[in-house]
Amino acid sequence: MHAELDSTDSQQPHLLVVDDSRLMRHAIRKILGNEYRITEAVDGESAWLALKQHADIQVIFSDLSMPNLDGFGLLERIRSDTDATISSLPVVIITGSEDDDSVRAEAMHYGASDFISKPIGASQLRTRAKTHLNLKQTSKKLDQTESQLEEHSITDMLTGLNNKNYFNLRIDKDLSYAKRHQTELSIILLGIDNLNKQFLEYGKPVINEVLKQVATIGRNNTRNEDTLARIGLSKLAFILPSTDLPGAQCISERICEQVNDLHIKVGETRLTVSVSLGIASFTHQTIQGTRDFLMLAENCLQRAHQQTGCSIVHDELTVDTVTDQPDSLDTPPDMNTAVELATSDSAMQLHPYLSVLLARLLPLLNLCNDKLDLGIDDAIKKIQSRLESRH
Predict the structure, then answer these.
(1) Are 98 and 219 members of one domain?
(2) Is the pTM of this model over 0.85?
(3) Is residue 312 one of the residues assigned to a domain?
(4) Within this chain, do residues 237 and 371 fall inside the same structural domain, yes or no?
(5) Degrees (nearest 5) of the Cα angle 196, 190, 232?
């Protein structure tokens, strides 16, 4: 199980060819090798490793019948991956003369973008590569434009709800207000269950309809003073000022009942939708910060996802939950103290200074990477970029 990377110009578009036949891989390389950089994989497993190692792969040509992981399994992994760069890759399936229409239909069901029949013609292969490369590049530009618009907007384009940018601003303000005026505050995180699986089975238009209808149910259960936002692919967030835990539970139960009654027609079948909800509430005595408050709600949501059906999990932050916490640090600690705290029950004291401490570590990471040949250049660049974006 292996993959080979061609040593041609790194500026050329990068293709992945997956076939257990060395002859077939050689034929495709001979046709496309002068125009494209080719990575070869002998089965789905090695193709998956290649995708994880080479973020610049733009088009995949794959056989269906292969050992270890066949073309169907590879397609399913690609389309269900949480990284949109991978899940949106064009996958051209290479089919043999023995493959019938049912095989193609199954491959299409798993997310195939196109098909080429053996024996492969040179002009046909070049046309497919060029077409899907252009489509991929166009799609990337559109995604970048949408992301830029979303970044400067406060509205989610699909659901019409507030987006994550607005949510982050609102939660800080509402938490500050609750502390200053000694009022209650609750947040609910809602996650749609099994959305990736449903995407594979029913496609993007159906999933978009699910998101819109769940968003409508959420909107119908909020007040003018509440904030409802879409903060992830399948996640909504509610900020409920002057609302205690019983109040948030009541809202969550109403949402669950209405989602359970939601049935979306897909052809001759009806898609049943299920959601999980995590609730975090606190009284005016609470002294936790925004990050810890959201983390608590996220932990509750993850626990809810582990249960079956429409599940609600909650926790409550009160003065009793924080009286045992150590005093906060007034200044960033030295590295020795930080290491000791990180491995102790007092790790929470480090939260306000994590960015500062990580910035101090960067020169050491760079030195270790250089002298020990760790191969983490990209990771270090991402860390540095994230740190710079926080300032």
Answers:
(1) no
(2) no
(3) yes
(4) no
(5) 55
